[in-house]
Amino acid sequence: MSENGWEGRPLELRLGPPGHGGFCVARHDGRVVFVRHGLPGELVLARVTEDRGGSFCRAEAVEILEASPDRVEPTCPVSGPGGAGCCDFAFAAPEAQRALKAAVVTEQLRRLADWETEVVVEPIPPEGCGDGWRTRVRLVVDADGRAGVHRYRSTEVITDLRCPQPVSGALVGIAERRWTPGAELVVAVDGDGLRHIVELEPPRSGRRSGGDRRTTAARRAAAHGPRRERVLEGSGRAVQYVAGRRWEIAATGFWQPHRGAAQCYSDIVADWADAGPGALAWDLYSGAGVFAARLAEQVGADGRVLGVESSKPAVADGIAALRDLPQVDLHAQRVERWLDGRIGGDTPQVIVLDPPRAGAGREVVAAMTACLPARIIHIGCDPAAFARDIGLYRTAGYRVTRLRAFDAFPATHHVECLALLEPA
Which of 411, 369, 415, 371 has the alpha carbon at shortest distance from 391? Predict the structure, then answer.
C-alpha cells in the first residue's frame, strides 16, 4: 500500500452481508472493505474513500457491474457516491431495505447478546416504507448562508434539499432564502400541519481551526450544547397528538421524527405493559410523558406512574400535557442518579425505557433488574446498543418474551426495536 493506503484506489468487489451503519462487507487482499451504495451479492467497482490503515477501509460503489434484483432507481438525488449520508438505502426496494435491517439486528443480537432469533422489520402504519415520513429536519447553514446537509463523514455542506424524507411542504422556500452563516435550522411540521422554523446560533467552537481530536470533540460538544434560538416561522411550539391526547412541545425538543412512530410505540407499550389498577409503573427517559400517559390509563387513580427525564423543558411540557392525571409524577433528573435512591423501595410492576442512541448501559440495567419488576419494555434506536442491553438483561436473569422491530427511518440504515422482558 502507498503512504495513504488504498484511499482513492478502485477495487472490483463482490459484496457480502450488510453491516451496522449502512454498508455491505467485502474483502480484498486479506482486508475488510465497508462498501456503501451496494447490496449483498452485487459485483461492484468501488472507490476507497477512507483508509487509516489496519484491518479495514471504507469505500463507495461507483459502478454496479452485476446488480441485485432488489436494486431500484434511487429515490434520493443527494445521497449517492460522494453525496450526503441521509438515505443509505434509497436504491433498494422497500422490502429489501427491511430485510437488510432485519439481518443487521439479528446479527447484533447473536454477537452481543448471545441470542439467536429471527427478526422481522415491519413498516410503521399507516404509510409503510415510502417518502414524506419525516416531520422534523435539522439543517446546517454554509458560509454563504445557504441551508443544506453535511456530505457523508464530512463538514462540507450540500445545499441540495431534494431528499424525499421530509413531509410535504416541510422544506418549501428554504433553499431560496439566506440564513445566518454557521447556524443550524430546525424545521418541524406539527400535528396540526403547521411549520415551525427555529434558527440555532452558530456554536462558538465552530470558529476554531485545526483538526485534532480535542478540537473536534469541543466542536461536537458545542453543537449539542445550549444555544440561543430564534423563531423565524410559526410559534416554535409544536402541537402533537397521541392516543387522543394533545401535547405542546418545543419545536427543537425531542419527538419521534416519523409521523406515525409515537402512536405506534405508544400502542405497543399499552399492549405489553399490562399494569393493573393501583400498580406502580416507571417511565425512564420519559421525554414529555407519551408512555406515562398510557401507563396512567392502566394503573388508574389509585396507582402511580413515575417518569424521569434529564431535559427540564421536556418535563415541563409533560407536566402541562398530563395535568389531568394526578397519578403521574414527572421528575427532571438523570436516570442514573434517580435510580440510586430506588433500590429497596417499592417494586414497580412495569418499567418502560427509551434511552438515547448509546443505550441504557450496565449501571441502569443493573439498577432496574435489582428492583425485580414483573415486566420491562425496552425501546432502542441503535441495533448494537440495543443488543448490548439485551445481553445485560439476560445476564441479570430476564428473558425476551416479545420483540418487534420497525422501519421508523425508511431509506436509511436506522431501525427501532422494542422488547418485552420478563424474569426467566
Answer: 369
